[in-house]
Amino acid sequence: MKGLKLLVAALFISAASYAQQDEIKPAAPGVTYGKTITKDKAITLASLNKKLVKDTVYNGKISGEVTEVCKKKGCFMKLKQDNGKDIMVRFTDYAYFMPQNIVGKKVVIEGQAKVSETPVERLRHYAKDAGKSAEEIAKINKPKKDLTIMADGVLVME
Fold first, then answer.
1. pLDDT digits (tens, 9 = 90+) for 17-33
2. CATH of the domain at 47
């Protein structure tokens, strides 16, 4: 009986997550998610990287191409950079989600881009917890910088 209840609960949760994805409006030119925004004054990811050499935070609009979206419920997406390292984009207060068909689309997002740095000690701690060898841990000698974006709104361009 207990097993049956667990199975029913699992099916309900699975159905709810699929239903939630179905409720998200498909990506098409002009569709917005979250805060309604325009493309005016959007900068490219290359320009963003140049700005963040001097500053650690940028507030404004950024344009880019979506390379990945959370397959579970659309709770994050990634934007393509020329250097091959995608930028993680999350959505303010999880107030909205992205559809699966947004991958490959050009978008403009408005929000805050931020450079954060993970110190060497923490990176070594993570490596140790992950079961890395002493040699691998010893090779960690530089802090890691990551660029993330917290988006208030997303506009699909094409």
1. 443 445 888 989 999 99
2. 2.40.50
